[in-house]
Design goal:
Homodimer. Its EC number is 1.1.1.262. It is found in: Cytoplasm. Its main location: cytoplasm. Catalyzes the NAD(P)-dependent oxidation of 4-(phosphooxy)-L-threonine (HTP) into 2-amino-3-oxo-4-(phosphooxy)butyric acid which spontaneously decarboxylates to form 3-amino-2-oxopropyl phosphate (AHAP). The chain is an alpha/beta fold. It has a 12-stranded mixed β-sheet, with helices on both faces. It has 2 domains: about 180 residues, Isopropylmalate Dehydrogenase; about 120 residues, 3-Layer(aba) Sandwich (Isopropylmalate Dehydrogenase), CATH 3.40.718. Helix 1 links the parallel strand 1 and strand 2. About 35% of the residues lie in helices and about 15% in strands. The longest helix is centred in the C-terminal third of the chain and has 18 residues.
Length: about 325
Amino acid sequence: MSAPYDLARPIAISCGEPAGVGPELMEAAWQATRAQLPLLWVGDPRHLPATLPHRIVADPQEALDICPKALPVLPLAFEGSAARGVADPANAAGVIDAIACAVDLVQRGAASALCTLPIHKKALKDGADFAYPGHTEYLAALAGVSRVVMMLACDALRVVPATIHIPLSAVPAAFTPAVLEETVRITQSALRTQWGLAHPRIAIAGLNPHAGEGGAMGTQEQDWMFASCAKLRAEGIEVTDPLPPDTMFHSRARAAYDVAVCAYHDQALIPIKTLDFDRGVNVTLGLPFIRTSPDHGTAFDIAGKGIARPDSVIAALNMAARMARAAQS
């Protein structure tokens, strides 16, 4: 083996939208990680930058020897062009196939984890009638699971929004005891099996200001959240009662928990994006394999200009590796 990797299998990387920043970020990410991480990129090699050395592989295990010298590529033929900044719907089927191929690699044990580069949902719908709202739902369908949970993570904080892309006005109806409890159970299980935490400490953010302040600022905490938290503790899960959201994200408070489960999207994402905007990682919990992704989109407006930052892709690869090590130990 040409590099002292401590992973026995490569990290599979689905190429994402070829007209976005994914291909150029892959070059910077490979340069930054090739001595530490075995990578395997799945996609059409025509879409990679000409300055990125790459080698075609037939067997994923070849990546371990090749990666220090060139990016290992499991090739797929796409039908469309790769003009930066302009999505070609003719590539939609290829992008979807790359995701499915990379998932197959992790599911059959040929890859240690999956890192997905950003897709463009409209291009997939226009070009291949993509039937899923996004990456996560497609991954859940491929894995045959009914519910997954989104985590955003960086070195300083992990957050899980129990409800995601819905209007704030819809949150009180959607945020139910069943949703909170299932989110916590999935989160606790993933932290144990994929992060190596024997007893994860889970903080619960109240829905209302000051966690309702005894019912004066909202009643959900008193009506059911305290009871749900007690139920989860009875199951052996280390979970707090609802905490005031405005006081649970400073440094001293964060030291008391391993993850914060929040009621809605912005309650979770504003703290982590404030703490580490460039290196946040999207992690999907509840899948039977490890999946990470950079916390940004295709960025068509800057694609090909050489100014896109690779921090989040590098962080996503390193986090996938850390989780894979924990899972195999």
